[in-house]
Amino acid sequence: AIPTALMVASGRGAQLGIFIKGHQALEATRDVDTVVLDKTGTVTEGAMSLVAVTAADGWTEDEVVRLAGAVESASEHAIAAAVVAAARERGAALPEVESFAALPGLGARGVVEGRTVTIGRPTLFDGRAPQAMNRAVRQQERFGRTAVLVAVDDTVVAVLAVADTVKPGAAAAVARLRRLGLRTMMLTGDNAYAAQAVADEIGIEEVVAELLPEGKVELIARMQEQGRRVAMVGDGINDGAALATADLGMAVGAGTDVAIAAADIILVRPDLGAVSDAIELAHATLRTIK
Ligand code: ADP
Ligand code: MG
């Protein structure tokens, strides 16, 4: 009866925009007691916009946005899209990027017009930013924004602040997971202020911020050692390893190829209600098999 039940589940799943990758994925939902949500692109839209630029002395906003935009045009991160859009809005023709490197969970680096341009989280530039830049970072973070630094060669030249919005229905989706008896937790590489603002908005009590991608993996592994069965929900940028480590990996939204490969369940719908829909569908299917 397993194949029949799976077929019924896939039919219903397709209507709901949920793809369960076979029997093992179904089984994995049985004992899940904890749902870990990635913040950017999972709880939030991941459609960021550049809301503030602070340029260091000797630099103009347009120039730093142009150079950062050029490097970010080679990145798939949500922050990158915001910077590229802002550069285009400012009428910049983006120069070509040579030797681009993504720094997962940290930022991106590329050579533009012969200069090395690095953009990423403040800790990437430990101690090299001038006081005024550090102050701008703190101020933007207190507004609940994500602040990244831009360096040209070894000089920090600007702070860019981006803002994201929580997906509609995210709070209701978290409440639904709770009603299913599941513990919810949000993980993010973003700063603690931005993380807390989102957590407050959606009613998640447990938040861990400023994590690196491997930190997310370690946290999940530690919970598993404590006997928890963990579902991880992510859009996949940097989260492939966490999705694969979790007892149940769920890729949300369009997802990246990495997420789709690493996940057990693919949620085609971007809304977080798909997470509880998928768990409920899986449980209902398991009941018909037993
Ligand atoms: P999240 O856990 O919220 O999905 P990520 O792990 O993707 O966050 O990124 C963590 C942090 O690394 C971001 O908040 C940002 O500061 C920095 N970062 C990562 N990629 C980029 C990029 N392409 N451009 C600028 N900053 C980046
Ligand atoms: Mg992410």
Automatic annotation (TrEMBL):
It is found in: Cell membrane. Belongs to the cation transport ATPase (P-type) (TC 3.A.3) family. Type IB subfamily. The gene is cadA. The chain holds residues 580 to 869 of 920 of the full protein. It comes from Nocardia panacis. This is Cation-transporting P-type ATPase B. It comes from the Bacteria.
